[in-house]
Inverse folding.
């Protein structure tokens, strides 16, 4: 800040204004229920659905960024989806979807199928009563195996999806089965 003696008031420089705005943002976040996900301010929402939609919005915004630093690009997305998992661990709808989304970011965005696999396995193990979550996590694990070069394991998983879910009335599961059939037919085991 600089002092203007002719008007006897303090005049803020642009740098001082930027610091003041940042302090205001941090203070507002602290008082309005925002939490930091590894250095990123992610607002707390009242419901799992609202928190999940905020994470989807973050992913959408980040996907448009053009940068070579993928870790920096996707870290806020992962933090936003983790917030769903952390704040609503008992939610049977949005928590598993957030886990799948975290896996998708690792697999597709960061090209780390090994890390992604952990999230898909967690959904597969923790939500056995949901056919959609079972099928969705199984196909994601098969895609990871393909990405890692484990073609025989991927082919086996694609076949298992077809064997278990073929003829399922849910159109989303039918779409997963169709993809599994197609992938099974084109994979050449290593």
């Amino acid at each position: 800040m600089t002092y203007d003696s002719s008007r006897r008031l303090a005049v803020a420089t642009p740098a001082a204004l930027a610091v003041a705005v940042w302090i205001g943002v941090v203070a507002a976040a602290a008082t309005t229920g925002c939490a930091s996900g590894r250095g990123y301010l992610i607002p707390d929402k009242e419901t799992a659905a609202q928190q999940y939609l905020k994470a989807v919005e973050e992913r959408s915004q980040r996907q448009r960024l053009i940068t070579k630093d993928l870790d920096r690009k996707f870290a806020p997305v992962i933090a936003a989806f983790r917030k769903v998992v952390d704040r609503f661990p008992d939610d049977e709808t949005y928590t598993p979807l957030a886990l799948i989304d975290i896996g998708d970011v690792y697999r597709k965005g960061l090209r780390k199928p090994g890390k992604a696999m952990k999230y898909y396995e967690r959904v597969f193990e923790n939500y056995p009563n949901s056919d959609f979550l079972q099928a969705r996590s199984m196909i994601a694990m098969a895609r990871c195996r393909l990405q890692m070069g484990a073609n025989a394991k991927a082919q086996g998983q694609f076949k298992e999806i077809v064997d278990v879910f073929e003829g399922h009335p849910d159109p989303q599961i039918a779409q997963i089965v169709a993809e599994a059939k197609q992938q099974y037919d084109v994979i050449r085991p290593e």
